[in-house]
Amino acid sequence: MPDESRVHDAKAARRGRAADAVPSLTVRRAVPADLEQVAAMRLALLQEEADNPLFANPHPGAAGRALRLTRRQLATPGQVFFVAAHGDRLVGMLRCRAARRTPLVVDAHQAVVTTAYVVPSGRRRGVLRALVHAAEQWCRANGLAGMRLQCALGNAGGRSAWESLGFEPAEVLYIRAVAGA
Ligand SMILES: CC(C)(COP(=O)(O)OP(=O)(O)OC[C@H]1O[C@@H](n2cnc3c(N)ncnc32)[C@H](O)[C@@H]1OP(=O)(O)O)[C@@H](O)C(=O)NCCC(=O)NCCS
Question: What is the pTM assigned to this prediction?
Fold first, then answer.
């Protein structure tokens, strides 16, 4: 029988590993000059999410909308876009915004993590791990005691990645079409 405390310690140690797995990788806050690369990654993420019913029907103007949405978000306080870069080339991104759950519970302030994406050629090298590490530091600096995110049930790779990084499934999002609407 495995020693549960050692298994837990090993998992915690892996979660705590920072960007040093990829020596040339830089993780930093996105700046306005990153706009086009971030918007392009958003569109690539949208394509990869095609099997997710929440993202299955891209808007014909998605390219222009991605630019405008990103520009607006980069200028909005209370949130942050982290990007991972090799030199000038962005290879990943992750967005965090502060949100309040019900005031009826303690630790109600959390970070909502969205827009997590790593370019296919950069995967399985610790890029998401480094982005989550940066997000965790941002949470601490902003007094946020937890992080939450949504991931499609069918996104096996995404779910494995989040669970490797210490996230646990907590609830299921149900959706349903409205007849005649
Ligand atoms: C999910 C995604 C962001 C992971 O990025 P990544 O940089 O490859 O992840 P990392 O290399 O930092 O891996 C972090 C941990 O997750 C695990 N992991 C990552 N991808 C995995 C996969 N496809 N299957 C199983 N485990 C995976 C890694 O093994 C690692 O754990 P370990 O160090 O304990 O072994 C990337 O695959 C991606 O962009 N996918 C398409 C978009 C997407 O699904 N985004 C998330 C939407 S919720």
Answer: 0.90
